[in-house]
Amino acid sequence: MTLGEIRRLYFIIRIFLSYGLDELIPKTRLALPLRLWRRTLFWMPNLHKERQLGERIRLAMEQLGPVWIKFGQMMSTRRDLFPPHIADQLAMLQDKVAPFDGVQAKKQIEMSLGCKVETLFDDFVITPLASASIAQVHTATLKENGREVVIKVIRPDILPVIKADMKLINRMAAWVPRLLPDGRRLRPQEVVADYEKTLIDELNLLREAANAIQLRRNFEGSNMLYVPEIYSDYCSETMLVMERIYGIPISDVVQLEQRGVNMKLLAERGVQVFFTQVFRDSFFHADMHPGNIFVSYEHPEDPQYIGIDCGIVGSLNKEDKRYLAENFIAFFNRDYRKVAELHVDSGWVPADTNVEDFEFAIRTVCEPIFEKPLAEISFGHVLLNLFNTARRFNMEVQPQLVLLQKTLLYVEGVGRQLYPQLDLWKTAKPFLEDWIKDQIGIPAIVRALKEKAPFWAEKLPELPELVYESLKRHKHLQHSVDKLSYDLRNDRVRHHQSRYLFGIGATLLLSGTAILLTRPQWDLLSAVMVAGGLVSWLVGWRKTD
């Protein structure tokens, strides 16, 4: 480790201990070395004993920076894993992170614009509307059209903190294959590198603007999801200007119920929005924590989501989408043989995996889970059990699926918070079955014909020439094949003759030498035999050339 990494690691440990988070270490025999290490090497006391555990975890993550805040945001959606006093505090990391100075934010905005804020905006509010791990937002009004907007500005000096943390995490990830028997299968460094790229990309607000424009176009006219308009003329790498939206935070269940929002439909639409993004568009919002999701005040009986903060998006290629959809459907139908075969076909487990053994292992893990009502089954738990099972069969972590898994856990966590009886399986299965049919049925053929028609129309006038060239190449190829076949046949004849001559020559040489050894004087017969042997070898050697 470098001196900088050691200093950062010490800082992380000091923050954890100063907030008393060492009490999270389980009091078991396996954890005894960690507790002894804490008592002997790190004697720092808990400086916040008066605060509750959840608040201490939140404050520690805020102080450690964006990498840790992102982790806390993800944990906040899993209320099935954490008690309310922890989940409620972690939820504050979604949009209630301590802001930086508004005056400094205004200076950064003016630097990006190249002019005073008042030149382009009215009613700029110096106090931020919300503040998160990467950036904070201020409200204003566009002078050119009088529309209310929010201005998002990146936190100052955030990149070095992210780089330092990711460098340290990558260093630790390099040790995982050495410390764990199946560490190489987990591909920890690839996962860390992918996560680092995602975080660095999120610092470029031009990328976020492009993502939001794409997502808005994908759901234009939809009653499921609304994406605010982006004013790209005012955007830069460190500043984003977009339409201001008014909605109910998705985490405010009490207000949603008071306004008569159809909670069951809202939860189901969250699942539908996710699967539509993944399978229809192959472009999905990968940071769908509650701080980025609102519900429109309009039409509570037909609720519509409002999505913001498109800094992190994901996509899957055609093969991964098909395998994933078929895997989901096989799970829904409890067809474990199909699940095992799909894992082998996709390359997610080695090709020499015993399918029968893999199928039996999946059934052993999943059958007890499916004995419960589907509405009570956590998809997160199913994934966790599946991956623990696949570990025995050398399944490698798929970096392209990590964002998808995280987003699915977000969706399930939010959906269960809105409507605890949400049956994610029942909601998703019809969508996936329709998608599969659409990909392999008559509509897929018609769509492929439509997509290829312009290309074929362009190439049609060239068709006679292409046919002529193809026949001409075929004729030349046939001639080359015939010549090669003739040459190979001649080579085989020559090699056969050379082997025959080498044999004759060896026989004559040995016979002539034997005669010379048995007779005291040189005679003509032995000389002829030796000469004949040499001539046979010479001719045989020339035929091998």
Automatic annotation (TrEMBL):
Membrane spanning residue stretches: 500-518, 524-541
Compartment(s) where it occurs, according to its Swiss-Prot or TrEMBL record: Cell membrane
Positions of ATP binding: 129-137, 152
Enzyme class of the recorded protein, top EC level: transferase
Topology of this chain in the membrane: Multi-pass membrane protein
InterPro entries (alphabetical): ABC1_dom, Kinase-like_dom_sf, UbiB, UbiB_bact, UbiB_kinase
Location of the ABC1 atypical kinase-like domain: 93-343
Enzyme nomenclature, EC number: 2.7.-.-
Record pathway: Cofactor biosynthesis; ubiquinone biosynthesis [regulation]
Record keywords: ATP-binding, Cell inner membrane, Cell membrane, Kinase, Membrane, Nucleotide-binding, Transferase, Transmembrane, Transmembrane helix, Ubiquinone, Ubiquinone biosynthesis
Residues forming the catalytic site: 287
Function: Is probably a protein kinase regulator of UbiI activity which is involved in aerobic coenzyme Q (ubiquinone) biosynthesis.
UniProt family annotation: Belongs to the ABC1 family. UbiB subfamily. Belongs to the protein kinase superfamily. ADCK protein kinase family.
Protein name: Probable protein kinase UbiB
Organism field: Erwinia aeris
